[in-house]
Amino acid sequence: MLNFNFQNPTHIYFGEGQIKAISREIPLNAKVLLVYGGGSIKSNGVYQQAKDALAKHTWFEFSGIEPNPTYDTLMKAQEIIKTENIDYLLAVGGGSVVDGAKFIAAAALFEGDDPWDILAKNQKVTKALPIGAVLTLPATGSESNGNSVVTRNGNKLPFASPLVRPLFSVLDPSVTLSLSDRQIGNGVVDAFVHTIEQYLTYSVNGKVQDRFSEGLLQTLIEEGPKALSPATKEDLEVRANIMWSATMALNGLIGAGVPQDWATHMIGHELTGAFGIDHARTLSIVLPAVMKVKREQKREKLLQYATRVWHINEGDDDARIDQAIRLTEEFFKKMQLPIRLSDVDLGSNDIDLLINRLDQHRLTALGEHSDITIETSREILTLAI
Ligand code: NZQ
Ligand code: ZN
Q1: Is the same domain home to 202 and 327?
Q2: Which of 44, 68, 160, 246 ranks highest by number of CB atoms within 10 Å?
């Protein structure tokens, strides 16, 4: 196992009716900015619950954070933060809203010229407003990590800082009942790929991390399709298991002390930045091709994945790996996600643009061995056609 340090201080309130906990988590003398997206929280009752919980607080609101939040939208929040002396952010929504709140929190106290430098020039975040969250879409893990992804002019870039990790997050599975099938499928696959990118590398004998990861993958494989099936989609236990899996997949626990491979995400971000494809739908297209192209480097873990996650015990090594990749693709299809570029009407003519963007963003040494060069990314994208 590799050396690591691990601390996750986000206080989680899990379960039905927990939104009211925000009234005691946010100090009464705070000036709160409730930030949200396009309005789903107004139609599913979450906004009203947050409003009730904030009855004794002084609070304002900022809405319109779009999926794949943009710099331009997020910077608009700075005005109300200054005029009302906001000192606490409450993000209510999916990963985009929580990520957006993180950038708003860092930009509000940024001392350099342009907060975009946090993403474009890796400028360190030294101060940020405190954040609380009510999560409405299980997928990203943003509710209990310090990561955020922001887009500007087609450039979708990540930043990370412990200072923007939410101090608390409410996870009420019942608020996920209003999600569309598309967002449910996206969320399950995003969490699945987060787990894979911290698991499917090379072995360092991290038995705890491996078995936690295998448990999360199996839970998502079992419960994901139930959230799409008419007979079980309203089952709150199904929703609870998916919600907790997604948080655990990217709260730092399973990735501590093991190698990580974020190539699928980095290539996927270019697909979203260039063509606007939903985040998870880029991952379901890129991951199978990464598994195929990096098959030799990942051989040992692919075999472990085949045996322990998919229970494939027959055939020679290569046949078992083929079967595991095939079952992964079938799972993505069952969750109603595309698995090829052609499924989203892209093809060989679109690859140059993606390759140029990867180069421009200096994403030229990806993967657990830093050996996914620009040429390897081209091979991956070509195989994904
Ligand atoms: O904007 P509203 O009206 O709220 O609608 C949203 C949005 O249209 C809707 N929605 C959310 N909760 C709902 C709901 N609709 C009905 N009922 C509910 N309960 O769903 C749509 C998509 O929301 P979004 O927040 O964009 O989805 P997701 O949670 O998948 O977040 C995706 C973003 O997170 C980033 C992605 O790159 C992308 O920008 N990621 C963040 C990560 C992190 N912070 O660690 C890691 C991930 O890998 C990912 O990169
Ligand atoms: Zn993701």
Answers
A1: yes
A2: 246
pTM above 0.90, yes or no: yes
Distance 323 CA to ligand 1 centre (A): 31
Strands across the sheet with 31-36, in order?
11-14, 168-171, 131-135, 88-93, 31-36, 58-62
Q: Average pLDDT, stretch 175-193?
A: 98
Taking the CB of residue 17, how many other CB atoms lie within 10 A of it? Answer: 11
Residue 208 and residue 284 in one domain: yes
CB of residue 301 inside a 6 A radius of ligand 1? no
CB contact burial 336-357 (16+ within 10 A = b; e otherwise): bbbbbbeebebeeebbebbbeb
Handedness of CA 191, 194, 196, 199 (dihedral sign): negative
pLDDT in tens, 113-163: 999 999 999 999 999 999 999 999 999 999 999 999 999 998 999 999 999
Ligand nearest to the CA of 283: 2
Q: Among 68, 193, 275, 279, say which to mutate for ligand 1: greatest number of ligand atoms within 8 Å of CB.
A: 279
What number does the ligand 1 atom closest to the CA of 39 have? 3
Residue 216 lies in a domain: yes
How many domains, the chain?
A: 2
